[in-house]
Amino acid sequence: MINELEKDIDRILFSEDDIKAMVKKVADEINEDYAGKKPVLVALLKGSVIFASDLMRGLVIDCEIDFMKVSSYSGTQSTGVINIVSDIRTDISNRHVIIIEDIVDTGLTLYKLKELLAGRNPASLKICTLLDKPSGRKADVYADYIGGTVGNEFIVGCGLDYNEKYRNLPYIGVMRNS
Ligand code: 5GP
Fold first, then answer.
1. pLDDT at res. 1
2. Full-prediction pTM beyond 0.90?
């Protein structure tokens, strides 16, 4: 069948095999750090869904997953606030929590989300992201587990969208004319 999406992709940054290797690297680190700790993965909708499900299958430790959808209001850089569209149901007090993100860009969303979840008294709180875009950072927030790093370009695929499109691409690429 004709791939309806491929024509919009200028070049592939990470192939399916690259993504598999990045997921395995992160899963191995989490397996080692969380053995016996039964962490709760908090996957951010919608972008992290594919990464989160790939990552879970690479985990050999006892763990749980829950989902959260937040939207950010830009405002000024330092006062960006987030709105919880859909919250987790899991009580995370005294639990080891790992936020699962698709890509950290400005970091404003995660900065605020970390603050919010920290207020629920987890035993620990870390961030795991498939990709990091350090050149976009505006908030003082860093991921503890990072699959790969990208430059200052807009990418799609493997959960990452452009107007809800391209999430189902099995690879990560740069859009034409982006
Ligand atoms: P920030 O770190 O700026 O608060 O927000 C990160 C979110 O912005 C990501 O979860 C993702 O939804 C979106 N984002 C940032 N960079 C990109 C990109 O290159 N491509 C896509 N598709 N989304 C991005």
1. 85
2. yes
